[in-house]
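Retro notes, item 3 of 5
We never archived the inputs for the biotin complex last cycle. Fixing that now. Sequence and ligand:
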Amino acid sequence: MNTTTKSILELLRARTGDVSGEEMCASLGVSRAAVWKHVQTLRRLGYRIDSATHRGYRLSAEPNMPYPWRVAPLLGSNRFGREFRFEPQVESTNRIAADWAVAGVPEGACVVADEQTGGRGRLTRSWHSPAGLNLYLSVVLRPQALPMDVPQISLLGALAVGRAVESVMANPPEIQVKWPNDVLIGDRKLAGVLCEMKSELDRVHFVVVGIGVNVNVMPEDCPDDIQGRIGSLRLASGREHDRAALTAAVLTHLEAVYDQWRDDRLRSLLPELEHRSAMRNRRVEVSDGHRIVRGMAMGYAEEGALRVRLDGDDGETLVRCGDVHVLAW
Ligand code: BTN
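Structure as it came back at the time:
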């Protein structure tokens, strides 16, 4: 959005009634035709602007969109989200962010999209990403870390979502983390985190942390196979939530947990992880690609691995990556 369009939006926002065409022309030093052109641009972006001859223009509704000019004033971060790219439609924000990282953007640069046509989940799954409803965010990180530490960053993303949701909701329900990357609201999936990286064996070049949050989507908007599992802020609260406010909150909290992690890895975050754990003292089945283990989830080890007390008195094992199912018995 250019500066004149932004000024017109500010003029309209500042007034509950009409702003006359002459007033806009005079205060911005542009012609009536130019005002009309900028108003049309705002309408295309989803702003509802009523106009009537002799009365002028009136802003009657703003779109629920995570536009950069809506997110920026709400950011409490120093670096994360300060470089912000918004796209109406992409295949995957993770892919755009990775290309952007290769081009050299600083840590904290992020890509947000209104819609993804090929949203990616873990383990080659897809991520349902309809337009107008949710948050699809990817942030570039440049950690001084070994590749084996990077899975911990998924937990950071999940914690950031938990904190962010609690900061924007009036009576937030409990937000739990299901290792390694799911965020649950009740027993439904609210958000997922997908970390992808470029590295050598002993050096990380960059990590893209991709976060998808189901904000205003309802189960009936989703494919049959996920309807029973999908949760959203709207489903939980019965009202629509502001995507820009949530975007700013996730970026703000992600920077805070990331800075904590840079200082002492997960050590000081373990109490919160344990508190938010959806699996503590539940029987689980974990498959890590090589083996399947069953037992009681005991909590986290310092490096973010899941501690499982194996069935049949077989001692405890650490699971570093994999897929978990909470068992009913
Ligand atoms: C999962 O639960 O399997 C992870 C889902 C991650 C989805 C987000 S949406 C933004 C970013 N772009 C993607 O293509 N995926 C992640």
